[in-house]
Amino acid sequence: MALFDEKTLRKLDRLALVAAQVRAGQIKGERRSTKRGTSIEFADYRDYTRGDDLRRVDWNVYARLERPYIKLLEEEEDLAVHLLVDTSRSMDYGSAMGAESAEGSAADLNKFGYARRLTAALGYIALAVGDRLTVTALRDSAPVAQFGPARSRAHTLRLLQFLEGLASGGFTNLDAALRTYALGSHRAGLLFLISDLFSPAGYRTGLGQLQGRGYEVAVMHLLAPDELDPPLAGDLRLIDAETGTPQDVTLDGSLRALYRRRVTAWRDEIEGYCLKRRIHFVPVTTSLPWDELVLFHLRQRGLVK
User: Fold this and answer.
1) Which residues in the chain come in under a pLDDT of 70?
2) Domains of the chain listed by start with CATH number
3) pLDDT for position 185
4) Closest alpha carbon to 18 in 254, 290, 303, 234
5) Cα–Cα distance between 15 and 21 in angstroms, integer?
6) Model pTM?
7) How many CB atoms lie under 10 A from the CB of residue 158?
8) Which strands sit side by side in the sheet containing 132-139, from one edge to the other?
9) From CA 174, how far away is CA 61, in angstroms rounded?
């Protein structure tokens, strides 16, 4: 799977992930902090007050205005970025390729393919600015594969190889897997969960434990267009992709309308929960080109700048 072309990489090179809630990093990186520090990058001025280091007075400004001002400098810091990808069998749904976006990139309607491209994009952005990146595949009740922690764009090829080697299958007890990750020895930071949230055990306790450990959480809720509005009719036997359990249904217009209402209510319920808990919630349909999601929609939501 060719995840990126050169044109897309150039666009991603100009971006950075944004964390509004988590604490500062441990080492200096290429990220600009809102905290004033001691790097050489100028941020602002403030009035001199008694006790300030005279070496930080801007004497050129003093010569013009005859008032002492202190130069404030931006501190450069890294961010711990965690990308958690649901690799259960239900994620392997949807056609492989769809229509092209205005930029010429094909939309991947398969949820798992889309999830890998999205993870690759977010991971590349993190590595490019020197953030500390960890990518984890979730299945059953725990992480099953992990990339990182890694820092710097020198690890980009290894990241892409890791993602290309992932496969979907089985089921994910999302709540248990998130709790296991929260209890692991990870440095808290900005965490993206990329999943369809098809987990009978739920997800709320796991998300709560992640927040309790200091993570800033963003839920990328991934669904295929057919899951929002199934193009089916008549007498059908539906098979659960993860458990193999069959369900006989007669699907007509009224039942399809009821299904659409319930899917909408389900997403609204998730969004309401996330809003109350200060969790970023991003509903994603795979018909939306992934590059448009990253370059436009995540920017709008303040997760990317």
Assistant:
1) 1-5, 22-46, 49-53, 72-77, 96-108, 232-233, 235, 240-244
2) 6-24+78-300 (3.40.50.410), 32-76 (no CATH)
3) 74
4) 303
5) 19
6) 0.78
7) 13
8) 142-150, 132-139, 80-86, 190-195, 216-223, 280-285
9) 58
